[in-house]
Specification:
The structure is a single chain. The chain is mostly helical. The chain has one domain (1-101). It contains three helices and no strands. The chain has helices spanning 2-27, 31-58, 65-99. Helix 1 packs antiparallel against helix 2 (31-58) and helix 2 (31-58) runs antiparallel to helix 3. The longest helix has 35 residues, at 65-99.
Length: 118
């Protein structure tokens, strides 16, 4: 019972953060704002949800050898997400800067102008 409550404390904010990332990717207008909305809260939300799931699985009365393998997979999932999401965001930001995908001319400031073509 107590592990259910603790896991819920992690899973609900994680689910809210993943949902807010989805809403942000639809509502934001510029490419960089969408990249930020997709990567930052989505990664944090995933980590929170996986931690809540691990707590729930460990607290189960049927916790055994097979569930230990599931926890290992969840840990690998978090490690993979933490390694790839920042790199993906950086690459998307660089490509959008090189291609000039920031939006209209009125949305640009001096530091956000596209890089010169080489």
């Amino acid at each position: 019972m107590i592990t259910d409550i603790i896991s819920l404390i992690f899973i609900l904010p994680g689910a809210f953060m993943v949902f807010s990332a989805a809403v942000g990717s639809v509502r934001f207008k510029s490419t960089l704002a969408r990249i930020h909305a997709i990567t930052k809260p989505q990664t944090t939300g995933l980590v929170l949800m996986v931690v809540g799931t691990i707590i729930r699985v460990i607290g189960s009365p049927d916790f055994g050898v097979h569930e230990r393998g599931d926890i290992g997979m969840l840990v690998l999932l978090v490690i993979f997400a933490l390694m790839t999401n920042p790199v993906t965001a950086q690459r998307l930001g660089r490509v959008s800067r090189l291609e000039g995908l920031y939006g209209g001319e009125d949305a640009l400031t001096v530091n956000e102008r596209p890089a010169p073509k080489r």
